[in-house]
Design brief:
The complex is a heterodimer of chains A (about 190) and B (about 270). Chain A contains ten helices and no strands. Chain A is mainly α. Chain A has two domains: about 15-100, RNA polymerase sigma factor, region 2, helix turn helix motif (Rna Polymerase Sigma Factor, Chain: A); about 120-195, Arc Repressor Mutant, subunit A. In chain A, helix 4 crosses helix 5 (about 80-100). Chain A is globular, with a radius of gyration of 21 Å. The N and C termini of chain A lie far apart (about 65 Å). Chain B has three domains: about 10-55, no CATH class; about 65-125, no CATH class; about 130-265, MucB/RseB, C-terminal domain (Phosphorylase Kinase, domain 1, 2-Layer Sandwich), CATH 3.30.200. Chain B is about 45% helix and about 20% strand. The chains are: A mainly alpha (about 190), B alpha+beta (about 270).
Chain lengths: ~190, ~270
């Protein structure tokens, strides 16, 4: 493999020429990262805050995500940096949730929630009843992370369903139904408080 | 609602989001002009979306986070194999190729070596004990990592100063310069030259400043500057106390700040 050889050359310091070329390549890559990815930090932090709902954990997650993004950046073949970065942030959030619980996270089961059963409405009603203040923030607290992320990606980031599907790793149809259910819940809370 | 009413709320949402094929969207637009029920439903969906858009909270990344990430980008070598991005791998056939991943790792290694060589050498040289300057810089860099900045986080000097009591054999000064743009962030105990030392942390815009101090015998020495990898360090000795001030703010500002610490007033 060519990499160890290249690294040996650099650490020996005997061949300044390739090191210098690499330095220039590296610096232009860092410049590009700072111009295109670093300015997206508010987007990254907003998604993390909504997903983990803890200020300090969200900061650590965003830092971890940026370091991962930086490691991957040389292999990033263009496209939308925002969707790419938010995919990494999301994965870091879910890793954190798994670690936090000490068990494998149970993913949201769209199938189990897809039918119009009484129990589904009962769950919604209970969730809504708990948010007595009736404002959007407290309504959000009753939503599972899978709903919160589609809301953030759609209403704040203005992503298309296709982009949301790519970031969250679910089919477009699932994005559409999650978004509809999330809105439905919010609507009922807001109607109740009106 | 008539039997001909096709649109569900999910469809209406997709319609508002502009996600329906043109023919379907046109059919719904038609239908809405004639069906009062669906028209009311549509208005409800529209209202919910509008409200969510205005009220869903947008957060601003704090300056300290920006500083931490900025520092970590140029100082953290990407040596270890990156953890696979599950979502990305699953959805992107290119990303799952072992060769592609190896290339990314290889590029990361080269980059890390190229970018971090200066700092890495400074931090890693094992052959001789690192100089005090290297240890101070190393401590500063470590402080930028998550959860390493402060042991006591407080903007109140009356919390920070007593915190050091019992942890150190001397009492560092903790002046406040919030009014002139250097907010007090907190303090911690770190190890430099084999002894515990006091570190008081200040902010400057998105940057962090670490102020190290410890007792040191010897005559007073005036302010001197050292620069390394984009970081500036000022050191002086007065009243039997050794002081180091480290940051990546520009050297002139840091010198001004070091002067303030020396005087104990702005």
């Amino acid at each position: 493999m060519w990499v160890p050889a290249a690294l040996r050359q650099m650490s020996d310091g005997n061949k300044p020429q390739p090191t210098r070329v690499l330095q220039i390549v590296a610096n232009s890559l860092l410049d590009r990262f700072e111009q295109r990815v670093v300015p997206l930090m508010d987007d990254a932090y907003t998604l993390a805050r909504h997903l983990v709902r803890d200020e300090h954990e969200a900061q650590d997650i965003v830092q971890e995500a940026y370091l991962r993004a930086w490691r991957y950046f040389a292999g990033f073949r263009g496209g939308d940096e925002r969707a790419w970065l938010l995919t990494i942030v999301r994965n870091c959030c879910y890793s954190w949730r798994r670690g936090k619980r000490g068990t494998e996270d149970v993913p949201y089961d769209d199938e189990a929630h897809s039918t119009d059963t009484t129990s589904r409405y009962a769950a919604d009603a209970r969730a809504i009843g708990e948010s007595e203040r009736g404002n959007l923030a407290s309504a959000l607290e009753t939503l599972p992370a899978e709903f919160r992320e589609v809301l953030v990606l759609r209403e704040i980031e203005d992503f298309s369903y296709r982009e949301i599907a790519r970031v969250t790793g679910v089919p477009i149809g699932t994005v559409m139904s999650r978004l509809a259910r999330a809105r439905e819940r919010l609507r009922r809370v807001l109607k109740q408080s009106a | 609602m008539s039997d001909r009413c096709q649109p569900t709320r999910a469809t209406l949402g997709a319609y508002v989001d502009g996600e329906l094929p043109p023919d379907d969207a046109a059919a719904i637009a038609d239908h809405l002009t004639t069906c009062a029920h669906c028209s009311a439903e549509y208005q409800t969906v529209l209202d919910t979306i509008a409200l969510t858009r205005t009220q869903l909270e947008r957060f601003t990344a704090p300056d300290v986070l920006r500083a931490r990430i900025r520092a970590a980008l140029v100082t953290t070598p990407a040596e270890q194999e990156p953890a696979p991005e599950r979502g990305a791998d699953r959805n992107d056939a290119r990303g799952s190729s072992r060769w592609a991943r190896r290339m990314v790792l290889a590029a990361g290694l080269v980059l890390a070596a190229a970018l971090g060589s200066g700092t890495t050498l400074l931090l890693r040289q094992q052959t001789e004990p690192p100089s005090i300057a290297a240890q101070v810089l190393s401590s500063h860099l470590r402080s930028l990592m998550p959860n390493h900045l402060t042991d006591v986080a407080s903007n109140d000097q009356h919390n920070v100063k007593p915190w050091f009591n019992g942890r150190l054999d001397y009492s560092p000064t903790v002046p406040r310069f919030d009014d002139v743009g250097y907010p007090l962030i907190g303090g911690r105990v770190d190890y430099v030259g084999g002894r515990p030392v006091a570190v008081v942390v200040y902010g400057r815009r998105q940057h962090l400043i670490n102020v190290f101090s410890w007792p040191s015998a010897g005559a007073s020495e005036p302010l001197t500057a050292t620069a390394s990898n984009g970081y500036t360090m000022y050191r002086w000795r007065s009243g039997g106390i050794e002081h180091w001030v480290v940051s990546d703010v520009n050297a002139a500002e840091l010198q001004t700040f070091a002067g303030m610490i020396q005087r104990g007033s702005p």
